[in-house]
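Working notes for the structural subgroup meeting. M.R. asked for a predicted model of this chain before we commit to crystallization trials. I am recording the input and output together here so anyone reviewing the notebook later can reproduce the run.

Input as submitted:
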Amino acid sequence: MKNLFKSTISLFWLSITLMATTILWSIIENKLINGVIDFILILVMMVINWKANFKLMLKWLMFALFFGVTITIAFFIPRIEIGSNKANNSENNSQTETNIEPTGTGEIVVEGETGVLTNGSTWSYIGESARGGEAYLGDDKATATYEVTAKNAGKYNLYVKLSDDAMHMDGARSVTITVNTTQTLKYTHVSEDTQGWKWYKIGTATLKAGKNTIAFVKDESTGAAYVMDTFKLIPEN
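Returned structure, recorded in token form:
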């Protein structure tokens, strides 16, 4: 019976340690809700076990913190670097940035607030804010869809005008862009302070003459939103 009790206590503190690790990982991934839930569970479990030796509980709590930090540094952060490199090497990701608004003959300009929002919830909207009209995609798979009319068929360079505050990790604002449901482009977020709005060249899209559909889909819920003021399609020379 005594051995069973010791095993139960060991399993209890092992679960506390694993939860501490997941809290750190949630903070790194900007998944704050997950982190808060794990923290509450830890508090509940500690209250239940409060009658256990206090010094032992404090000792295990310090160990859990040390273990969580060690695992996060040794395992999870390298995974972030690897994932970032893979995204940057994607054939669809040819984006560049510029502080100068791109222009060109025959350009198509689309305002962010003219789209239609689907799959949005609390953290997504299309409309007016203190910044002006915009598309704000914060939820997983939140989608802003636009109907674009092209006078001529052909290849167009896609530019987007975005806002960022450098307060979230790389990838937190990433979206997948589909053109007529058959072409896929990618905006891979690199955290920076745009100090308002900044233009990014995403890549090349092929449009047909007449109506085209372009959709921006938030890759996941991260605590940060894809915030777009305008996008442009400029014919390739």
